[in-house]
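Reply to dn_fold:

You asked what the input looked like. This is it:
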Amino acid sequence: WILLLIIALVLLSVLRNLGVIYDSMARLRQFQPAPTKLAAGETLPELALLTLSGGSRSLSDFRGRKTAFTIISPNCSSCHDLLREIAESNPDPDPLDRTVRERVIISVGDSIRTAEFVHQVRLREDIPILADRDNGVAEKWGINLMPTTVVVDQDLKVVRQIFGVDGKTAHQATPVASL
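and this is what came back:
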């Protein structure tokens, strides 16, 4: 009986440790960039975007220049950190390519809250801020992790995606591929 008791205790200990390992791996998985529907070299799918003042904009308005589209949500604390960083120090839109000069902010949340926050951090007025009211960023681009920056070339072809920000320094870049 003692031998069976020892074997049972060892099995319980192993099972408990497997649960701890599984929980740890699940927590690590949440920090990995979520896969998106965008592939390097693919033309960025069109979205129906509105300016915060109610006008409409098209992605084709940005054709002809390298552009970084930064997707945010007003409910995301990392997005707030990123907007504060942009407002205070205006970092390069793409830390891996200094020739990208154009930045466009696309908000996937409430445009009123976005406008309030943009005003609060005193974001430069020459940075376009657009609202995605049709959920195209999630449906067409497959982006659900905020903030994410999608860098495109002058033909609106995806060059890379940058996931997240640490709030103090440049973006943590994860190239999809280099063209």
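The helical segments are 2-29, 77-89, 111-121, 136-139.
Hope that clears it up.
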